[in-house]
Specification:
CATH architecture: 3-Layer(aba) Sandwich
Order of helices and strands: EEHHEHEHEHEHEEEEHEHHHEEH
CATH class: Alpha Beta
Strand order of the largest sheet: 1-7-6-4-5
Number of domains: 1
Bound molecules: acetyl coenzyme *A
């Protein structure tokens, strides 16, 4: 039987930090509310495109795996904030890497996009379609954030990480996964203004308004991730005591605590980044996994549980067996260019652009025909 081992990992985090104090300079909010309700202290704002972040993360993951870009057979780009829709974003990473032999695809299941991408790549490796893949989780949320809405503006950040997956005859990589979608409550999270439904309605792209029912999402996220985690553990014949590390989606510290407790796991087995990066949607799990490896928290042969949820509302949980190697084979030393403006300055620019165009967009945002 062929398995799909994770053999490379790397992140690409934008350097500019937006603190809770920065947010309170233009929103009616404060550090105490954000910290106690979400666990978040700061998040990153990117000065480069999502494809640039993804290319750097992919280069780092390939160096870590010791795989030449020319030998890559598949690139899967998990995101809901693509720089462009046509051409797809994975092809942009492909050309920057010089991965001439690769097939390239984008997958959007919102915050679960990386994990659905990992499932897709794993299935294609197991069935012999390809022998290796670069799987990316990337998000550039700041340009389509509604910076006037404190319910959402404090929650999200930009970021990226990637892994390399390769065919193996050892039982490594995904052992099992549980995927689902609570489509009946898809209306609880909608970004009005993104997509072709708005194209002929005078809506300026990026001029968004978020439908967001935080408490409903919270409830379904806890229930969905707990059930998916219990289902995947039962499917694979393991119990909570067998899990060495939990690398969950990082939307809210309270959501993570609720899921982990219900699944019968202690919090000291959980890799947390939510305090420093907020919710980076598709990027949260691969960034947390990369940092867990860098901090020595992934031991050879470790059993890792990865529960996540996202707009849709998609839910999933993956059980991964790590291989023997927890150190990179090589390193790519390049970095993102240095930002020339602070995170707060970049956000204030976005707010000013939105203010200039919002009057024209307002009716279109409401009139789009949606399910
Ligand atoms: N600062 C200060 N006060 C605020 C803020 C803020 N940023 N946001 C909301 N409040 C106020 C509300 O207006 C409300 O005031 P009121 O009582 O006077 O009406 C009060 O705080 C309490 O609001 P609640 O909604 O009850 O707060 P709650 O404890 O539920 O926390 C939160 C809200 C953090 C949004 C939580 O519900 C949550 O995390 N939900 C999950 C959301 C999520 O993670 N979504 C990501 C989806 S993933 C994807 O695919 C993109």
């Amino acid at each position: 039987m062929t398995y799909a081992a994770i053999t490379g990992w790397g992140s690409a985090m934008p350097q500019s930090v937006l603190s809770n104090e920065d947010l309170s300079t233009f929103l009616d909010t404060n550090d105490e509310w954000i910290t106690t309700r979400t666990g978040m202290k700061e998040r990153r704002i990117s000065h480069v495109t999502a494809t640039e972040m993804a290319t750097l993360a992919a280069r780092r993951a390939l160096a870590c795996a010791g795989l030449d870009p020319a030998d890559v057979e598949l690139i899967v780009y998990g995101s809901c904030s693509n720089d462009e829709i046509v051409p797809n974003s994975a092809s942009g990473v492909q050309t920057s890497l010089g991965a001439k032999r690769a097939a390239s695809m984008d997958i959007n299941t919102a915050c679960t996009s990386f994990l659905y991408s990992l499932s897709t790549a794993t299935a294609m490796i197991r069935t012999g379609v390809v022998r290796n893949a670069v799987v990316i989780g990337v998000e550039l949320i700041s340009p389509y954030m509604d910076w006037s809405n404190r319910n959402v503006a404090v929650l999200f950040g930009d970021g990226c990480a990637a892994v390399v997956v390769q065919a193996s005859n050892k039982q490594e990589g995904i052992l099992g996964e549980q995927l689902g979608c609570l489509a009946d409550v898809r209306h609880t999270l909608r970004v009005r203004g993104m997509g072709v439904a708005y194209a002929n309605l005078g809506v300026t792209y990026g001029n968004t308004s978020w439908d967001f029912d935080g408490q409903e999402i919270f409830r379904h996220a806890v229930q969905g991730m707990t059930q998916a985690s219990q289902a995947v553990m039962a499917k694979c014949g393991v119990t909570a005591a067998d899990i060495d590390l939990v690398v969950p989606h990082q939307a809210n510290l309270r959501i993570i605590e609720a899921v982990v407790t219900r699944a019968g796991l202690p919090m000291d087995k959980v890799m947390l980044t939510v305090q420093r990066y907020g919710n980076m949607s598709a990027a949260t799990v691969p960034v947390a996994l990369t940092e867990a490896l860098e901090q020595g928290r992934v031991k050879p042969g470790a059993l890792i549980l990865m529960p996540a949820f996202g707009g849709g509302l998609t839910v999933c949980s993956h059980l991964v067996r790590w291989g023997e190697r927890v150190e990179p084979l090589g390193r790519y030393d390049g970095d993102l260019p240095k930002p020339t403006r602070s995170a707060l300055d970049m956000v204030n620019d976005m707010r000013a652009r939105k203010a200039a165009s919002s009057e024209r967009s307002e009716p279109g945002l409401r009139d789009a025909r949606l399910t």
